[in-house]
Amino acid sequence: MPENENVLVVDDESLIRDYLKEILKRMGCSADEAVNGKEAIEKLKNSEYDIVITDIRMPEISGMDVLKEAKISQPGSEILMITAFGTIENAVEAMKMGAYDYITKESSLDHIELIVKKAIEHHRLKNENRYLRSEIDGLYGFDNIVGKSAKMRKIFDMLKTVAESDATIFIQGPSGTGKELIARAIHYNSPRRDKPFIKTNCAAIPEGLMESELFGHEKGAFTGAIKARKGRFEAAHTGTLLLDEVSEMSAGLQAKLLRVLQEKEFERVGDTQSIKVDVRIIATTNKDIKEEIKKERFREDLYFRINVIPIHVAPLRERKKDIPLLVEHFIRKYNKEHNREIKGISREAGSLLMRLDWSGNVRELENRIERAMIISKEPILQIRHFLFEEDGFDQSSEFHSEDTQMTLRELEKQQILKTLKNNDFNRTKTAEILDISVRTLRNKLNEYKAKGELDTCFLKEN
After folding, report:
1. Is the pLDDT confidence value at 402 over 60?
2. How far is residue 157's CA from residue 154's CA, in Å, rounded to a whole number?
């Protein structure tokens, strides 16, 4: 057992104090003492203790008073009460008030060590849980969802409202936009935060196994079912079940999921007994769900059942104002993770990131930032740290010359023309995606035309 738990021993009998201190010393604990309740309360106000061991009966200020003060000034500590044979009832009352356990003065050395060890282990477990909770809060707090664009602010406002409810939530958006992060943030900021959060990727589990994964099965229900097994609905009981990419679910399973949502009960595969569950559902998809309904690949009645609270996450190209904040966030994250001291990115690199298309959305941006931070030997990330041959940029090309103005101009032109072509030469939509005015776009195209850099297909206006 690791050393240095700090223990306060409170007793008006010196022999008892010395006896307990000797036991604690052998256990590797650091022991302090108080000769009466008044001194104990003073020490509790001025020092920190992991464990407090106090006699119940003391003149003037009793151990019960010490217990009350400890619960106020040392709420994370464990309290052990020392009692004589005739005061067991008082010790039980103390436990109702928050004491961890009690020790009788007739207890053997082994018994006292056992009780103290259990108190120390319980104290450590509480500390570990507090640490894990703080880590979870750091990972899945609403502050970890980064963005300042109007579309993200709208999502933030909604999250704070819906997290407190039990309503089913349907999150739609392209891959890489952070749908799972939003789902976890909802769970860990809800009244169910201390209950299970179970994720099921509907696209990753083979169709033949999906029903068993969701609802569980009985022994012998199918070949290979050598024992009964709980499904993810049971595992998520009283908590949250994330159905990631729910649009990939087969028609038969969609019907069974609809029934669970309506009746809040299901049967394991191979069983006829219904199992009641209390589960909050959060579903996600990266597809156009209305188009899936139109093509009869997704049940309309299931859509209405899961779409109680709809959240739409826009692709990164439609919220470019979020990029600078995301860059700062990922630099902080990977400085810590990779023990780096990157201070930021250059203006040219920032301009490049604002112009790229980001087909992989936030996930792609995060990967590029991490990769740039790993290869950079400078405190400021430069444009060359973000350009690779796999992106179509030759390492020896003009993009890596010292002429950064030419580099940015060429990158800007490529991005403008690519976006224009991808949007059927619609200038209004292209300008909106690039976060520039239609007038600026027109001026850029006229510039490229005057220099003979524009194909005729780009000259038409839609």
Report:
1. no
2. 5
Question: How many CB atoms lie under 10 A from the CB of residue 433?
Answer: 19
Longest Cα separation, the chain: 102
Tell how strand 30-34 and strand 6-10 pair up: parallel
Would you state the pLDDT for residue 141?
62
Burial degree of 385 (CB within 10 A; 0-12, 13-18, 19+): buried
User: Residue 246's pLDDT is what?
Assistant: 96
- Classify residue 368 as exposed, middle or buried by CB count within 10 Å of its CB (0-12, 13-18, 19+): buried
Give DSSP secondary structure letters for 44-105.
Answer: HHHS--SEEEEES--SSS-HHHHHHHHHHH-TTSEEEEEE-GGGHHHHHHHHHTT--EEEET
Cα-Cα end-to-end distance for the chain: 75
* Fold exhibited by the domain 144-314: Rossmann fold (3.40.50)
Q: What is the pLDDT of residue 435?
A: 67
Mean pLDDT of the residues in the chain: 85
Name the CATH code of domain 316-399 (choices 1.25.40.10, 2.60.120.1680, 1.10.8.60, 3.40.50.1100). Answer: 1.10.8.60
Question: 254 phi and psi, to 5 degrees?
Answer: -60, -40
Which uninterrupted H or E stretch holds 271?
A: none
Long-range CB contacts (within 8 A, 24+) of 221-225: 221/268, 221/269, 221/270, 221/271, 222/269, 222/270, 225/269, 225/270
Tell me, what amino acid is at 60?
E
Judged against a pLDDT cut of 60, whether residue 397 lies above it is answered with no
What pLDDT is stored for residue 281 in this prediction?
Answer: 97
| Residues 6+ positions from 320 with CB-CB distance below 8 Å | 149, 354, 434, 435
